[in-house]
């Protein structure tokens, strides 16, 4: 059932090229320049007239929501708030019938997310679900939705659910951007073409596995790790840290790279591995200067870089390459090596990768 892999988690990491393709199949029609999503199409007015989108989720799904915030605001020019479902539901939040709430959940059973949806509905908001499990409680409770077609995710640490959630949310953002006229035709077409290339690029990123395993060997005995990223890749830093924590039990924190100097930099010494997402895009120079700051404090730098990068290579202790893509799509690639790193470290430390202590696949109690 593990299809020849040692663990479900590894199998699911390797399934991502297919899972992403299955998620956009029938929706992304790049040649025709169309995104077909009935759940969005049938409620277009709700989305287009919304004052804002509120995304509610927990854990990894919340990280996918953060990536979506960048995409929706950047490409569709719709204001977005991303909320931990557990905080949102107890905060007496301001919700009106001009709000659209998007609930993201792999299992579709997370108690806090379900409660947040019920609250939003009571206040008249339109609620849209992004779930993986068909017919789950959240899928049934929402007004409309779009499934991720990741297939069953058995490993407790979420991997393919995350990348397929980002895929669905990207499709929604692009579709709304097009409807609103927030994106030019040529840009829209370019995004569709680039999204269609992602599965092959994920396969390419997976080819670094042997190299990533060697990097894992070097850092498996660390007791603390930092993960840094900017822009679209800030949520990827959070997700990288979460993956390491939950399966290897190594303490890790994700930070926006520029926040480092407001505190975490005090932690940096030669014992501290710092994983930096430094792909060649928007904030590249800024990330390079963050790397210099770490280096001058003797921190160990492991950088995720764009294929062919030379600048970061000169500074970092280790680099792991991913193919080039649009900045907005880069989380789909930069996440891959961080998943593999956590996996290999956990295996080397003899941890129960698929069923980490204290964790459950679906959190049906608050
Ligand atoms: C992380 C993880 C959890 C879940 C969270 C939400 O790897 O598995 O953080 O992401 O419990 O679960 P869903 O998406 O099922 O609502």
Describe the structure.
It comes from Winogradskyella jejuensis. Its main location: cytoplasm. Keywords: Aminotransferase, Cytoplasm, Glutamine amidotransferase, Repeat, Transferase. Its EC number is 2.6.1.16. The chain has helices at 8-14, 16-24, 38-41, 44-48, 59-76, 85-88, 111-122, 137-141, 160-180, 185-206, 209-219, 234-248, 284-295, 311-315, 331-348; strands at 28-29, 34-35, 52-57, 80-84, 99-105, 126-131, 144-145, 224-229, 251-256, 273-277, 300-306, 318-322. The protein has 366 residues and is α/β, with parallel strands linked by helices. Strands 4-3-5-6-7 form a 5-stranded parallel beta sheet, sandwiched between helices. Helix 14 (311-315) links the parallel strand 11 (300-306) and strand 12 (318-322). The structure holds fructose -6-phosphate. Fructose -6-phosphate binds next to helix 5 and helix 12.
What secondary-structure arrangement, pairings included, does this model have?
Layout: H1 8-14, H2 16-24, E1 28-29, E2 34-35, H3 38-41, H4 44-48, E3 52-57, H5 59-76, E4 80-84, H6 85-88, E5 99-105, H7 111-122, E6 126-131, H8 137-141, E7 144-145, H9 160-180, H10 185-206, H11 209-219, E8 224-229, H12 234-248, E9 251-256, E10 273-277, H13 284-295, E11 300-306, H14 311-315, E12 318-322, H15 331-348
Parallel strand pairs: 3-4, 3-5, 5-6, 6-7, 8-9, 8-10, 10-11, 11-12
Antiparallel strand pairs: 1-2
Helix pairs in contact: 2-9, 2-10, 5-9, 5-12, 9-10, 10-15, 11-15, 12-15
Fructose -6-phosphate is lined by residues 58-61, 105-107, 110, 113, 156-158, 242, 246, 362-363.
Main location: cytoplasm
Function: Catalyzes the first step in hexosamine metabolism, converting fructose-6P into glucosamine-6P using glutamine as a nitrogen source.
Catalytic activity: D-fructose 6-phosphate + L-glutamine = D-glucosamine 6-phosphate + L-glutamate
């Amino acid at each position: 059932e593990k299809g020849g892999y040692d663990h479900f988690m590894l199998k699911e990491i390797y399934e991502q090229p297919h899972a992403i393709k299955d998620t956009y199949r029938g929706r992304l029609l790049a040649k025709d320049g169309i995104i077909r999503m009935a759940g969005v199409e049938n409620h277009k007015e709700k989305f287009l007239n919304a004052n804002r989108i509120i995304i509610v989720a927990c854990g990894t799904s919340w990280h996918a929501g953060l990536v979506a915030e960048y995409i929706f605001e950047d490409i569709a020019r719709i204001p977005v708030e991303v909320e931990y479902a557990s905080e949102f539901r107890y905060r007496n939040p301001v919700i009106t019938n001009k709000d659209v709430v998007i609930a993201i959940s792999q299992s579709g059973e997370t108690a806090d997310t379900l409660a947040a949806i019920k609250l939003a509905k009571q206040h008249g908001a339109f609620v849209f679900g992004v779930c993986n499990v068909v017919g789950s409680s959240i899928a049934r409770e929402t007004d409309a939705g779009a499934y991720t077609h990741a297939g069953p995710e058995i490993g407790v640490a979420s991997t393919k659910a995350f990348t397929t959630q980002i895929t669905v949310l990207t499709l929604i953002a692009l579709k709304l951007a097009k409807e609103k006229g927030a994106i030019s035709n040529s840009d829209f077409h370019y995004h569709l073409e680039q999204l269609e290339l992602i599965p092959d690029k994920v396969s390419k990123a997976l080819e670094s596995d042997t190299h990533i395993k060697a990097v894992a060997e070097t850092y498996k005995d660390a007791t603390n790790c930092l993960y840094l990223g900017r822009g679209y890749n800030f949520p990827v830093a959070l997700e990288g840290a979460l993956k390491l924590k939950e399966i290897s039990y190594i303490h890790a924190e994700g930070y926006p790279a520029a926040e480092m100097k407001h505190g975490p930099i005090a932690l940096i010494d030669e014992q501290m591995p710092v994983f930096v997402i430094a792909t060649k895009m928007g904030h590249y120079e800024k990330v390079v200067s963050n790397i210099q700051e770490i280096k001058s404090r003797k921190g160990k730098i492991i950088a995720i870089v764009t294929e062919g990068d030379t600048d970061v290579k000169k500074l970092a202790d280790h680099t792991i390459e991913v193919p080039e893509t649009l900045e907005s799509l880069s989380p789909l690639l930069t996440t891959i090596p961080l998943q593999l790193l956590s996996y290999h470290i956990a295996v080397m430390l003899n941890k129960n990768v698929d069923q980490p202590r204290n964790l459950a696949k679906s959190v049906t109690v608050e």
